[in-house]
Amino acid sequence: MAFINYKSMPAELGTHDVTEVQYKSDDFIVRGLLVTPRKSVNRIVVYLRGGKGQVGRVRLARLLQFANDTTLVFAPYYRGNNGSQGHDAFGGADLQDVIAGVTILKALYPDVSVHLIGFSRGGIQGLLTYQDVQATSYIIWGGVTDIKLMYEERVDLRGMLRRMVGHPKKHLSAYEQRDALRLIDDTTPPILIIHGGLDTQVGIHQAYHLEAHLAEHQANYDTFYQMSEGHVPRPRAMAEVLERIRIWMDNIENRNVIKERH
């Protein structure tokens, strides 16, 4: 597998090249945004967007939050979005768009740590894929952890969920397939949970729900709760989140180096 097309984007960064890539996922050609350092690649961050369609679309400014001189950042658009073929499936077949993209990156940059970051709707996308791609760690940020819980609390999104997933009672198997927690035990890669206490788009009980499961199964995880913040932190709180993510990735990678030496 490989990226089959690169389109340079109008961004003069000096340190990174910004390209829109196309790649094969199932029978579709899908797209994603790639930010590649001009120096060596020592870390890969895969950002899993939230929302649907133009809401929550992948933006360069978001990816640059995770970039440094040796960090590559990639964000799949998901099928059916921004020129990608197919139809968005909200944690269904579109998961392959994540898996295929990460598989290509791991082939291009073997032995480089890969961290997934799932924001909002991207939370469930990451929970259902980070083990398949053998991620170094997974950061779930303001993320959905349970689609059924989302259906219950977001009355305004029920119509969209019925169209894309189905009704929780009439299409129970579709919701069971999107139940990520059943796949997580003590062998899972490390998880960092980030959430705002005033989040009204994805309630913090979604984070608590995941935390309780991880604790029960003695998985490797940590939490960073900002109880005075909403879905998107304010500037000072945002800086704290980004620093916490950086420290988390550094610590996980350093632990892995120590394990390898022993």
Derived from helix and strand composition plus strand pairing, the structural class reads alpha/beta
What percentage of the residues does DSSP assign to strands (E)? 15-25%
Query: What overall form do the CA principal axes indicate?
Result: globular
**Average pLDDT level:** 93
**Fraction of residues in helices?**
25-40%
Contiguous uncertain segments of 5+ residues: none
* Number of DSSP E strands: 9
- As a whole number of angstroms, the C-alpha radius of gyration is 18 Å
What's the end-to-end separation, in Å? 33 Å
Summarize the structure.
With 262 residues, the protein is α/β, with parallel strands linked by helices. Helix content is 32%, strand content 23%.
Task: Describe the structure in your own words.
With 262 residues, the chain is of the alpha/beta class. It has a single domain (5-261), classed as Alpha/Beta hydrolase fold, catalytic domain (Rossmann fold). The chain is 32% helix and 23% strand. The protein contains eight helices and nine strands. A nine-stranded mixed beta sheet has the order 1-2-3-5-4-6-7-8-9, sandwiched between helices. A hairpin with a 2-residue loop joins strand 2 (16-25) and strand 3 (28-37). The protein is globular, with a radius of gyration of 18 Å. It holds the Pfam family Peptidase_S9. Residues 84-251 form the Peptidase S9 prolyl oligopeptidase catalytic domain. This is Prolyl oligopeptidase family serine peptidase.
